[in-house]
Amino acid sequence: MKRLTTICLLAVASVLSVSAQNIYDIKVKDDAGKDVSLSDYKGKVLLIVNTATRCGFTPQYKELEALYEKYRAEGLEILDFPCNQFGQQAPGSIEEIHQFCTANFAIQFPQFDKIDVNGANESPLFTYLKARKGFSGFDTTDQTGKFMDNMLRKQDADYDKKSDIKWNFTKFLVSRDGRVVKRYEPTEKISNIEADICMELNPVLSTIMARRSVRKYMDKPVEHEKLETVALAGINAPSARNWQNWAVRIIEDQKLMADVKDMCRNAPNLICVCAPADGRFDLDAGLLGENMMLAAQSLGLGTCIQTGPVSFLTTDEKAKAFRNSLDIPEGYKLLYIIAIGYPDEQPDARPRDASKVKFIK
Fold first, then answer.
1. Structural domains in the chain?
2. What is the largest CA-CA distance in the chain?
3. Is 55 annotated in the active site?
4. Is residue 112 packed enough to be buried (19+ CB in 10 Å), middle (13-18) or exposed (0-12)?
5. Which residue in 81, 63, 280 sits closest to 165, CA to CA?
6. pLDDT in tens, 70-111
7. How confident is the model over 109-136, as pLDDT tens digits?
8. Which of 55, 83, 198, 274 is catalytic?
9. Contacts of 151 (CB under 8 A, 6+ apart)
10. Burial of 21 (0-12, 13-18, 19+ CB in 10 A)
């Protein structure tokens, strides 16, 4: 019987992991016990948080409500999930918790039924969130962060190697298109979270922050209309004296693509950017490429800019038909290529070094 129960639990876990291909597949229960599909929040920027009413971090409710009031009209939703797993600091019923939060902090954002965020009975929502953004540590230069690290390490020396939620008021930021953008531990300053929320609410900034180099693509060519839009965005990039010293070739012919796919991340389409051979307008051509990649991102497409295959494409006999099809203007060179297609991966952002930026005041 025990073995059968284990098999059933594993089967349920497998179904959940398969069915929750994106966050909008998940259902949660509201404070009245009714099922709510997270697809109801599609198109919103979400801040998802596990909370407690008797925690040292409970005053964060005030800051969260301030964020909600400030950015709700722009598309922010804060989803509150009370949890009693950390120090038994959310002991009341959901009705009692909601009454406490409205009376003491006047919260207006949605509050859902109590859940577990870790363990055998954890909410599928938090299983999903943790799988996409694991624990990356507390800031031990901060006094509160150091305290949390010391406390948890005494309980488990390897606590930081697990993706589990560590305490109340852990937060996840989800973009308008359902990507889990960031995870914040309870010690994170609300001002830092607000800055990231502003990025996600602004469509231009969120597109910039979401763009990644994609190296795996679906076997599905990009529609001609979308390629036209990408090209139009590119040629509207700034150039010296508006000379537009570039030539763009977008490959839709799948027979031509078959000759070069191995060199181009197996993308279904390719953008070839040419510039004068003397190199004077390489910067202009670079700006054109950035415009095209951001436009592609906004259309749900992935891109990867490459210079490595240029030598093969311009000299190798196997690429002769491809090369001839480009009709590169006299005096121009193939500067770089952009693989483009529907992404078959969601790579995480690589760290950026903010110390490279200095403000001269």
1. 15-210 (3.40.30.10), 224-341 (3.40.109.10)
2. 79
3. yes
4. buried
5. 81
6. 999 999 999 999 999 999 999 999 999 999 999 999 999 999
7. 999 999 999 999 999 999 999 999 999 9
8. 55
9. none
10. exposed
